[in-house]
Amino acid sequence: MYEVVLVDDDVIVIEFLKKAIPWQDYGFVVAASFQDSSEALVFMQETPFDVLITDIGMPKLNGIELIEQLKKSNINSYNVILSCHDEFTFAQQAIKLEAYDYILKELMEESNIIALLERLKNKMDQEQHTSNQHIKVSKLLEMNTKNEDVVKAQEYVQTHIGEKISLTEIAAHLHLNSSYFSRMYKKETGEGFVEYVTRVKMEKALELLDQSGNSVEQIAYVLGFESKSYFLKTFKRFYGLSPKSYKYKDKVSGTNARLTNLGK
């Protein structure tokens, strides 16, 4: 179901739209309705929705201003304008803002709105299908074109997590120039190779802190760090707190959870 937001300062219009239109029969549901356009804007900035049906002539924010604010917030929605004959200039502005359509209130009948909903749903279904196909093709291309050397490098890191791994070392392992490998890896993954190694080691550090009784010194050794101090410095730079603080935080959370359960 596509979610619709109704905005009109005239309660009669809102009630007509909510009750006279069989929304669900056409693939839509009214997620929310507002007489206050400012309240509607806050809702739409915080809550996902698909379609906005809004009056043009409203206090605070009129329909044009409401759509402009949504666009400034990078919210993509299908916008339908409700207007009167004497607001045609506003309607022209709405079209410039790429509103999907507008309905003259004088002609606002159930059949007209249902016809609009049928057209809109067909368009949204087609665009959703196209978007899904693009995603599938992109994923397929990504899988097929991912550099084999990147895969081998990542596999090497995963299987040698307990060693000190340098970019020069992995480039030699792959029989590649280190500068070339560095550029190629960043281009293929969007992440530097050294950053990848650090991230993998830090993720493993959290796993060891959570699931083992190893000391910080032991974890630093297991992960191939040259010293405890360097491990501590890297951990704090990556997570913003020390391993000890992380363990303490975890214990406090567990204690609070147990106390909460006891209090029930």
Tell me what you see in this structure.
This protein has 264 residues and is an alpha/beta fold. It is 62% helix and 11% strand. The chain has helices at 11-20, 37-46, 63-72, 88-96, 110-145, 148-159, 167-173, 178-189, 193-211, 216-222, 228-239, 243-263, and strands at residues 2-7, 28-34, 51-55, 78-83, 101-104. It has a five-stranded parallel beta sheet with strand order 2-1-3-4-5, with helices on both faces. Helix 1 (11-20) links the parallel strand 1 (2-7) and strand 2. Helix 2 (37-46) packs parallel to helix 3 (63-72). The protein is elongated and about 80 Å long. The chain starts with a strand and ends with a helix. Mean pLDDT is 85; it is low at 252-264.
Q: What pattern of helices and strands is seen along the backbone?
A: EHEHEHEHEHHHHHHHH
Q: Approximately how much beta-strand content do the residues carry?
A: 5-15%
Instruction: State Rg.
Output: 29 Å
Mean pLDDT score: 85
Q: How would you sum up the global shape?
A: elongated
Widest β-sheet, arrangement of strands: 2-1-3-4-5
Low-confidence stretches: 252-264
Q: Which structural class fits the helix and strand makeup?
A: alpha/beta
Topology summary:
Elements: E1 2-7, H1 11-20, E2 28-34, H2 37-46, E3 51-55, H3 63-72, E4 78-83, H4 88-96, E5 101-104, H5 110-145, H6 148-159, H7 167-173, H8 178-189, H9 193-211, H10 216-222, H11 228-239, H12 243-263
Parallel strand pairs: 1-2, 1-3, 3-4, 4-5
Helix pairs in contact: 2-3
